[in-house]
Amino acid sequence: MTIATFPPEPTPEQGWGRYFGFCTDAKVIGIQYIVTAFFFFLIGGLLAMVIRGELITPASDLVDRAVYNGIYTMHGTIMLFLFIFPVLNGLNNLLIPTMIGAPDMAFPRLNAVAFWLVPIFGFLLMASFFVPGGPAYSGWWSYPPVSIQNPVGHLINGQGMWITAVALSGVSSIMGAINFVTTILRMRAPGMTLFRMPVFCWTALAAQSLQLIGLPALTGGAIMLLMDLTFGTSFYRPEGGGDPVLYQHFFWFYSHPAVYVIILPVFGIFSELFPVYSRKPLFGYVYVALASFIIVGLGLIVWVHHMFPSGVAQWMRNLFMVTTMLIAVPTGVKVFAWLGTLWGGKLRLTTPMLFCLGGLFNFVFAGITGIMLATVPVDIHVSNTYFVVGHFHYVIYGAAVMGIFAAIYHWFPKFIGRMPYEGLGKLHFLLTFIGANLNFLPMHPLGLTGMPRRVSSYDPEFTFWNVVASLGAFLLGVSIIPFLLNMLSAWIRGPKATHNPWNAIGLEWLLPSPPPEDNFGEEVPTVISRPYGYGSGQPLVEHQDEIERRLALQEAAA
Amino acid sequence: MTSSSTRSINTTAVVGLSFWVGLMVLISHWMGQQAHRWLPVQASTAAPLVDDLFSFETAIGTFVFLGVVSVMVWVMLFNRAEKYDETDAIPIEGNTRLEVIWTAIPFVLVMGIAFWTIRASDQLGTLGPMEHIHPRNPVEEAGGYLGDRLPAEQVEVIARQWSWEFRYPGTTVSSTELHLAVDQPVTFRLVSEDVLHGFYIPAFRVKQDVVPGRAIDFNVTPTREGVYRLRDSQFSGTWFAANQADVVVESAEEHQEWLQKAARAPLQPGLSLAVSEYATRQARSNPGWATVPPAPPPQVNVPGSPAQPHQA
After folding, report:
1. What is the pLDDT of residue B86?
2. Is A169:A81 a contact under the CB 8 Å cutoff?
3. Do A329 and B213 touch (CB under 8 A)?
């Protein structure tokens, strides 16, 4: 390459308008995804507050039982389909092209369509609160026959809207997945072989492959459910010869891998950030990269562990227990690699690093309860109890959401061009870490003593731990205030960020902050070494000194 | 990791590390013992097996968790960058021997746990219910009475939105409170009239989904007299949380006595909290979001008491 005109002139301020329109710039789409996701995060969080408000006393006394069921169903649905998947797709949009030196995604218009489906099915789901009979109430699993009972009797009903929204979410995710996979495979910078690719891209590739394999099963299963609900077919209806357990196979064939779609990119975030903030290369890069794909392979053959008490044969229970347990091995490789990275490093406990460390702590705990859940006899006792609720909230909130916060604090300067505030960030971390543990740890003793999940009332012996969990939840609710404050004030008037405020290694840090619309444009640097060359002094790309000098000059001139 | 770089302080490191690992073993063992206290009373033959497995996993899990957290705390205390130190650490790219070790040890560990579990499952004798699943009999579908046709030790459990009904073998007795004789193996025949339900008695450590259109046979042996809770564990709609029943485990003589007394009792409406709550709800001017109406309470000999103290 030549770097005659590098860096490109900063793109002139384009105003706020583009964030509200059909824009094909991946960086705009990324921010659209993330902001939309956090809008729904607040709604889902508000519903969680109502749930914990109801459960602070044994009786069903805050909301009607039907309302409670609708609220817990919508909490789960919103958090998964309208928060966590969109926020991760937002990060994918921001990070994948800049990390691999691509000017944009492979299919920019498809990318924009995939995003705009999110507000559309989000609106559909929100609208279901206002139709006669209220929203779907059968849990985010929507197991038939409960989900096809349609008590209100109308053609337009909450459950039908729910299924339509989930199917649209699937369509959006498939579009996104095609785009991410193609971009990663076809648009890498010269010299960036697969084994010179940042681990975040490896994990994104792994996660998006899972979407492509798994989503058709869920979408097909959902369409059959909609037909049973609306047209009276009998795919799952026992009185018509259908089998309700069949749905569970369709559902979990996708929805267990969906957990890896969520957690793999978070592993990617940990693998990016631990080296930066301990100033050491990622320990065992190749093993960490490959472990993602072992998780993909195993992740596709574990789904029956969600159905141990559903009526499956013992040999099947044993088989799926073994595959489930094997996932601990590649996951362990990653955890030990992060510890190896930290060991002997020069740690900087910045906000993103604290979120990573907290996330790793919670993840290890969740992994241990995960092994317990994999063992059939223990699972039989605690499945469908609060033990499971505690387990997956440790995974999703304790590890994934904390990793996502880490990513936001880490890459905010790059894509917004301004620095977030450390004080507020650390306060946010502290409240999140304490709140999450106070909220989700008590769920384990509750489940072990036999409190089922999804209950709107419970026997008085469960009161103590429920009160603790509710207080933790309210603290978690408060923890979002410093985050929002930080993001808004940093975006409006935070100090200007340099091109590489964390002294990190990676193509995205060789771009101005924020990067110009087509990133490196025609002048993509040639990658000459592996990522994470901390301490070796080896440059990542050709002419790296010159690129950095010019970036610094440009910053000095601004 | 430490062997080459800390050769000079080898003895201190080895002693310190041994001490710490020994302490972690002790703590893990103690946690394993504690684990029994986090579970309900053991009231079936299944319970000790499940609890021992859980205790074992708690001990192993505690050790792994402490190990990881120890490293994290250590590096946060002793591997922090000095103030104003902008330099990088010594680059270590990886170590193949370590990779092999930390792939092999977890592999052996989880396979060991899996082996133990499979053995425990065999002992539990919870044969996969799939072998016992059969389509429901048309007579049964029509509501015909089953008691006389069932094998001697079989209790039929009928789950509905939202009540539990129990019919006893060789008698005409039915109840909405489950009565069992201690130390006597019992086979439940689980059927559902409407949607999925979960047959879950925490004190017995057993759980089995009740699937409409199937009859699932399911064995358990109660081992401890007392009153326990049966809870619906698979979400079944509006009054899911209220779909509970009491399980009374009594001596064989008491059980016979109860059966005889129950056989003489007239049929009356069984317990269904949902039915009374539904009536209150419908009386409101705006009953709220739609709900499936509860099935009428089953007509039984013994409804049981709604406010009986239970042990787990």
Report:
1. 87
2. yes
3. no
| Cβ within 8 Å of residue B43, ≥6 positions away | B201, B203, B204, B222, B223, B224, B226, B228, B249, B311, B312
CATH code for position A345: 1.20.210.10
Compute how many other C-beta atoms are within 10 angstroms of the C-beta atom of residue B282: 10
Q: Report the residue of chain A nearest B46, measured CA to CA.
A: A377
Q: Is A111 in contact with A105 (CB distance < 8 Å)?
A: yes
Contact B241 A456 (CB under 8 A): yes
Protein fold of B130-300: Immunoglobulin-like (2.60.40)
Q: Are A338 and B72 in contact (CB under 8 A)?
A: no
Token pair for A421: 């505030």
* Residues sharing a CB contact under 8 Å with residue A420, sequence separation 6 or more, in sequence order: A351, A409, A412, A413, A486, A487, A490, A494
Q: Which of A379, A305, A320, A317 is nearest to B128 (CA)?
A: A317
Q: What is the pLDDT of residue B8?
A: 61
Q: Which of B92, B242, B290 shows the shortest C-beta gap to A151?
A: B290
Structural tokens at position A131: 């139709």
Contact state of B213 with A244 under an 8 Å Cβ cutoff: yes
Reported as half-sphere exposure (CB side, CA atoms, 13 A), residue B256 has a value of 3
Which H or E run contains A144? none
The answer to whether residue A195 sits within a structural domain is yes
Residue type, B309: P
ipTM score for this prediction: 0.93
pTM: 0.94
Q: Which of residues 68-87 of A touch B (CB under 8 A)?
A: 69-70
* Residue A47, domain extent: 29-557
Joined tokens for residue B78: 């002793």
Q: What gap in Å lies between CA B297 and CA B165, rounded to an integer?
A: 9
Radius of gyration of chain B (CA): 28
Q: How far is it, in rounded angstroms, from Cα A298 to Cα B100?
A: 19
Domain contains A11:
no
How many domains does one find in chain A? 1
H or E element at residue B277: helix B273-283
pLDDT at B6: 47
Does some domain include residue A5? no
In a domain, A12, yes or no: no
Paired tokens of B152: 């001697």
Which of B64, B277, B290 has the CB atom closest to A368's CB atom? Answer: B64
Q: Could you tell me how far CA B233 lies from the centroid of its own chain? A: 9
8 Å CB contact of B234 and A143: yes
Please name the residue of chain A whose CA is at the shortest distance from the CA of residue B104: A329
Interatomic CA distance for residues A25 and A112, integer angstroms: 8
Q: What is the pLDDT of residues A47-62, one digit of tens each?
A: 999 999 999 999 999 9
Domain ranges in chain B are 7-76+97-124, 130-300
Backbone phi, then psi, for B190, in 5-degree steps? -95, 120
Residues in chain A with CB shorter than 8 Å from the CB of B113 are 325, 371, 375
